[in-house]
Design goal:
Length: 486
């Protein structure tokens, strides 16, 4: 290895390295391990100094140590038979450090999934972003302006949700899983909750309704079968230890054919008759009917309140288009008990989330859905999408060996909303002698990261899930990646 890089025993100095070489390490491995540069020598090299100048000494040292650990592991496993050059190490470090810098987190979504969980679900609207940006100093988070005393931090959000849904009260936690667990803990800890077998869902990230019930301290009582549950199944299961009935939107899957289950109206009627509270987990949190966009409707939050649900919970970062959050609305008495529960403080949200949520909900109050990115995307015509494709095709200038085609596509909302139904879209596909998985990986490493989907050995870039003005970034990213392969 050239330059002022010297051998080392570990990348941090003279200490023994866990997993390092000993008397049983093969001679070749021992030699390679000694060729890995020390942290001191690298940081004092010209290349190291440049990285410190750009990213800071602490970050550079930390990532260098991680890289050395990776190199040692590869050598000891036999998967690497050489030590990278100083230039290669520097290039890898620069890439790794760039990925943890603030401007490396932005992604371009061409997957055709609008609420992509891996890409942050709903993009925030401009007013929400502006509100968050204005919180660089102090803010009126939890102070009553008139009296100067401590106040309810979600006061404005509660008023807007009262207006939008007709609920008596509302509160906010950090996600809908927390909202579900909190409502169960408040209503049914130490008691039984009745649920249909067809609603025992598992959602992404191993969120399982039976597990949530167990951790909330209640006992789950299953009724009915996977495909059919009747109201009398609930009635027969009610006893003196029954604390609540729960209705769960299945979100990520649908049962077709011979199936039925009581709706929230029927459950609320039964609950009122037997004096048992009803919880409704409506999932995606639809505040407006989706049929106006040609999509099958999701459960409306307002319908849950009209039916008489005591507590209704849903996500704030899906069809509501806000930041990650879980919303709990319902009767004033039950919401007050939710707020007093110890878990409520553990699950509460910060000032940034509240500011973004307030400035998202205001668009529903004003019936101005066109300001919200999700509904902007759903409102695009096929002509609009073809114009996006035109812009990209005209500016690509790729090798003739890469076949570019325009095809009909289907774009999905994602995040559990209408999982088996999409909206018509347009996609550009890229195919050739290249390995699509390798190209997709390189695209994900671009700045901003470019995400597409792979289908039938081709890269698909869906036009509907792109944000306005991202066409040029798609062109730049594609040209850069394909030039590396040529």
């Amino acid at each position: 290895m050239s330059g002022d890089i010297r051998s080392f025993q570990n990348c941090c100095g003279a200490e023994k390295v866990p997993g390092g070489f000993d008397s049983h390490t093969p001679p070749l491995s021992s030699s390679l391990l000694r060729d890995i540069p020390s942290a001191t020598s690298f940081l004092h090299s010209h290349e190291g100094a440049e990285l410190i100048e750009e990213f800071g000494r602490g970050a550079t040292l930390s990532e260098f140590r991680r890289l050395c650990d990776d190199l040692r592991s590869q050598i000891l496993e036999g998967s690497s038979l050489s030590v990278p050059t100083l230039l290669s190490i520097t290039k890898t470090l620069r890439y790794r450090l760039s990925q943890i810098s603030s401007n490396a987190k932005r992604a371009v979504n061409a997957t055709g999934i609008l609420l992509h969980t891996g890409l942050g679900r709903s993009p925030l609207c401009d007013t929400a972003l502006h509100a968050v940006g204005n919180l660089s100093g102090y803010s009126i988070l939890q102070v009553d302006i008139e009296g100067g005393k401590r106040s309810l931090r979600e006061h404005h959000i509660e008023r807007m949700l009262q207006e939008l849904t007709g609920c008596e009260a509302a509160t906010v936690v950090n996600n809908n899983a927390a909202a579900t667990m909190l409502t169960l803990s408040v209503l049914a800890q130490g008691k039984e909750v009745i649920v249909s077998r067809g609603q025992l869902v598992e959602i992404g990230g191993s969120f399982r309704m039976p597990d949530v019930m167990a951790y909330s301290g209640c006992t789950m009582v299953e009724v009915g079968t996977t495909n059919r549950t009747h109201l009398h199944d609930y009635e027969q299961a009610i006893n003196d230890n029954t604390a609540a009935l729960i209705h769960v939107h299945t979100s990520n899957y649908r049962i077709r054919g011979f199936h039925s289950t009581p709706g929230i109206d029927e459950l609320c009627e039964l609950g009122a008759k037997r004096n048992i509270p009803v919880i409704d987990d409506v999932g995606s949190g639809s505040l407006i009917p989706l049929f106006r966009y040609g999509i099958m409707p999701e459960p409306l939050v307002v319908d849950s309140i009209r039916a008489g649900a005591d507590l209704t919970c849903f996500s704030g970062d899906k069809l509501m288009c806000g930041p990650q959050s879980g919303i709990i609305i319902g009767s004033a008495d039950w919401v007050a008990k939710v707020r007093r529960h110890p878990l409520a403080r553990m699950f509460r949200v910060c000032k940034l989330t509240l500011a973004a949520l307030e400035n998202t909900l205001i668009h529903f109050i004003n019936d101005n859905h066109a300001a919200l990115p999700l509904y902007q995307a759903l409102d695009l015509s096929l002509q609009d999408l073809n114009e996006r494709a035109d812009t990209i095709e005209k500016n690509l200038n790729l090798s003739p060996q890469i076949e570019v085609r325009r095809v009909e596509s289907t774009c999905f909302i994602g995040s559990g909303t209408n999982p088996d139904e999409g909206v018509p879209s347009v996609a550009l596909t890229f195919q050739g002698s290249f390995d699509v998985n390798d190209v997709a990986r390189l695209l994900r490493g671009a700045r901003p990261a470019l995400f597409c989907r792979i289908h039938k050995n081709a890269l698909y870039f869906d036009m509907r899930s792109l944000r306005p003005g991202e066409e040029n970034e798609v062109c730049t990213g594609l040209r850069s990646v394909f030039s590396q392969l040529s």
